[in-house]
Input
Amino acid sequence: MTTESAAAAARATVYGYPRQGRNRELKKAIEGYWKGRVTADALRDTAAGLRRDTWEQLAAAGLHEVPTGDFSYYDHVLDTTVMVGAIPARHRAAVEEDAVAGYFAMARGTQDVAPLEMTKWFDTNYHYLVPELGPDTVFRADSAKQVAELKEALALDLAARPVLVGPVTYLLLAKPAPGVDPDFVPLTLLDRLLPVYAEVLSGLRAAGAEWVQLDEPALVQDRTPAELNAAERAYRDLGALPDRPKLLVASYFDRLGEALPVLAKAPVEGLALDFTGSAAANLADLAAVGGLPGKRLVAGVVDGRNIWVNDLEKSLATLGTLLGLAGRVDVSASSSLLHVPLDAAMERDIAPQILRWLAFAQQKTREIVTLAKGLAQGTDTIAAELAANRADLASRAASPITHDPAVRARAAAVTAADTRRSLPYAERTGAQRARLGLPLLPTTTIGSFPQTGDLRAARADLRAGRIDTAGYEERIRTEIQQVISFQEKTGLDVLVHGEPERNDMVQYFAERLTGYLATQHGWVQSYGTRYVRPPVLAGDISRPEPMTVRWTTYAQSLTDRPVKGMLTGPVTMLAWSFVRDDQPLADTARQVALALREEVNDLEAAGTSVVQVDEPALRETLPLRAADRPAYLEWATEAFRLTTGGVRPDTQIHTHMCYAEFGDVVQAIDDLDADVISLEAARSHMQVARELAAQGYPREAGPGVYDIHSPRVPSAEEAAELLRAGLQAIPAERLWVNPDCGLKTRGWPETRASLENLVTAARTVRAELSGA
Output
């Protein structure tokens, strides 16, 4: 195909779309099902309606091909586990008895059965359920969901493309099942898995699929020759199938690198590549391998993970170059639009001029359609759109919101001394222990306590003017009193105020810092039915006044036990926001760190002896390529030390991380120079404790003994067993006892029971250590 005909054939598509619905109808239906208020049939009807509405909206916007199979009740990797029949043995009976209930049992667990482990989807804040595999795993095809959803879209007379997690990525994301040799490599099951994918592809072809997309984002990471050989074999075998649809292999989040020639040569009909951010290198790499002659290229030129308007002229230039490298070039976002909110037009509290800088899923869809039209029909046909886009980009660049000279001068004045504590850890730990007077195996929680319906209603009433500030603050005081009283009666050693005033651990601070924008409807799925509203980091950051001191000080006035000051760290403030794309992340992190440093110092001045600065996103934001990691870790750890470096030696600094693979960042965890770190460990059976020990981590640590992402209440003996496992890796004088994460999403009955069991477990193991 000539360049001219490739341009004329250009079409618009996306890889995936937000699942929740305009008013989070899916979340409400699923949680209603969990509580017994919504039947399984009603849940299915709600889901089918949301899928239909999404496809019709995408088609009406001008997409030529809609994705199917990307919809999920909980997680698309869990859906893949069901599709290939890799149900863990402990869940099989539940799945066979009731497919819907069994599905959620795998995701959330039950009182008797633990769920699948959960961790971050590459470097995003989306969480997936980790497949559990072993040498005895038997795969069986079950593509009922994928086929049914394809037929739903085809019945609407739409061109539809099923989207599946690819077999190589599925196996690379998997872990050895409990009881399996931890050195077992799931990728060795590839030859066993490929026939199942062949059966699924055949079924989709029979159902009417012309194309099927197989997502292989794991191939953008550094891969061994054996892993690249597995990818080559997988697509050689799938490409050779006689009864299959056309195959589109997709990667995103970074450049393909050494995997690009493998896929370019594979006997598949197309590739979908990311051309944004660091993945822009795919353009030169594609030219270097000779392009994709005669094949389809889906070009991800609209950022699928951030919310700034696209530079249409820059994207058109990229697309124009790509026309000479493929038989056909289509236009898409760089990844699924799952990672952005639904519609910026729903925002009423953001100034109209600023709103024009933002593009959520619906706006990105329009950008994709505009680019495809300009590519296919010429730029004259989109002249008005290009002019408006230029004006929007210029408005943002010139805005005083974007640049604050005072903030920039302060950041430029930071020295190395500002990022160091006055004494090293080994010298300050004695002063902290003397000040705090804690027992062996001290108990604490991560920070938040259940956010009840009453608390959410109180915030809504305040926003609506149904109560005044005084009435709202009295409600917060009452909640803090109850939380402190419960912790004292339960026997926890280091307390928290419970964060009843906070809507979200990032948004709360963003609303109190200049340079941030908060949304009202910018919901993005984090996991399951957990949705967050990432704020928008739009300009230079500063702190007008203290943000947490008042409520922390009030909580401390109610007890003689230490109450932790609770802050969100600078890296997490970036990772769980939509960040600026007009300056290096390191510069933004330093600005946020300076604002938080003021808060830490004010907490200490008010008498707070323990300050926790949470950095759950430190590992999440780790670049996917090893070569890019040292520079990131340097500025990320510096930002944390800048936040905490101004406190006295006897003030204890905690940090917290959860639901990530920590082995890659153990040295960075040490470089934070925190005194205590708490980490997720319950679902991974204390793996992180072993990783810390293997690296010689010298500080105090609290690997979690209570999985808060499941409704089940762990028994005291179960928590004690995890604690004993932790002691095999971490000495008792450096081991803390705590849940995996904050308790915001849990209910009070399970929280009370679980924390009571946690304290009982700590006392039991203390007694064992003392010989009592």
Notes: The chain is about 45% helix and 10% strand. The two ends are 82 Å apart (CA to CA). The mean pLDDT is 95.
